Amino acid sequence: MEELVIIIAKALVDHPDDVTVKTLEKDRLVVYELSVHPEDVGKVIGKQGRIAKALRTVVASAAVKMDKRVTVDIIS
Questions:
Q1: What DSSP character marks residue 76?
Q2: What are 2-55's pLDDT values in tens digits?
Q3: Contact 51/43 with Cβ under 8 angstroms?
């Protein structure tokens, strides 16, 4: 799942080498903290958060088999 977040994020940004993902697990919740270059934050979030919402939807859909709730947090 972490690789999925990295692949999608690297396709969106201008500085793909600065993309990192940290995984935090709490009970039935998995949080992927996506960190990108400060110039690329807007590209990952998108207008009115549309790209971020789509990214979260794709990851949540892929995580259905894990029987856990999954979310993606974007940090610069």
A1: -
A2: 999 999 999 999 999 999 999 999 888 999 999 999 999 999 999 999 999 999
A3: yes
Name the class of domain 2-75. Answer: alpha beta
The pTM assigned to this predicted structure is 0.88
**Burial annotation 18-55 (CB, 10 A radius, 16+ → b, else e):** bbebeeeeeeeebebebbbbeebbeebbeeeeebbeeb
The dihedrals phi and psi of 30, each to the nearest 5 degrees, come to: -115, 125
Bridge pairing between strands 29-35 and 20-26: antiparallel
Give every CB contact of residue 61 below 8 A, 6+ residues apart in sequence.
Answer: none
